[in-house]
## 1
Amino acid sequence: MQLIFTKLLWSMLMVTGLIGSIIGFVLPIIPGIPFLILMIYSLKKISPAFHRWLSKTRLAEWLRKHQPTLAKWLVG
């Protein structure tokens, strides 16, 4: 029961991050990047397969090189 509730909570945060990032990229007054980070972090918590894939992308390598703190938090 707790596992289902946890996945549901992370899924709701992921959808909120997706909607917020889309609105943030359309409307310049709302920042979209924090919502995008929330979406990626939530998706990482939901799917271990996504986390493995994310760790191998060029974006992850770039983050490790230029933003090591953010990369450790998102990818590591």
Note: The CA atoms of residues 28 and 66 lie 25 Å apart.
## 2
Amino acid sequence: MSDVARYFKQTFEDYQVLVKVNADGLTGTELIIHPDGKVEKTEMEFDEEIFEDLEVDGFKASSPLEFNLHLSKAGK
């Protein structure tokens, strides 16, 4: 696997979820962007099927820039 983290996003009815999967493939960060602009951050531990799970759940590749812009708003 590459040494670069991978980023994914999915838009649901009234919120958006962005996921960063670290290069180790088993850790990362999830951001939930609520309609009011609040950003909820959760550190995650994944299993070996994380990429397949994200694909099945409809997540698409995203950019590190978008993820980090939202991350900068987390907890504010």
Note: The mean pLDDT is 92.
## 3
Amino acid sequence: MFEGLDNYWVWVALGLALAALELLAPGVFLIWFAVAALITGALSFLFDFGLPLEIVSFVSLSLISVYSARRYLRDKPIISSDPLLNHKGGRMVGETALVVQPIESGSGRVKVGDSEWIARGPDTAAGERVRISGNDGAILLVEPIALIADAKAVQSDGTPAEG
């Protein structure tokens, strides 16, 4: 392949370079090509079978490793210990917020912690508290707390609860 350099060193260098690129830009994709290049380097060291067969070996091993990894990860996906880690809106479900811009015609703004969010829900005056019931992207879905309290005050048979 290169003058004065054994083919297996080129495959090992390619495999290490691909592994390093995977570390720099993780995506669980280049690592499978790195594995194929390293195995091709090992096969080239053990059996000196020439460049054309080494390329066929690399392509074949790449396809096998990518397909095997995809199938394995499909059957046994990586489960996060915190699935809402990068889902800020989902983490806020159940929290209360203060309406800072009245929710009129289904849209307004609420304050959660030290930030303001666009909110959708029933008409609510500024200064009232609402509960976050969900999100649609960066828009929070809210419901007035008074409606929640009213719903709890009604018994299952529809009669008002005594209290």
Note: The radius of gyration is 29 Å.
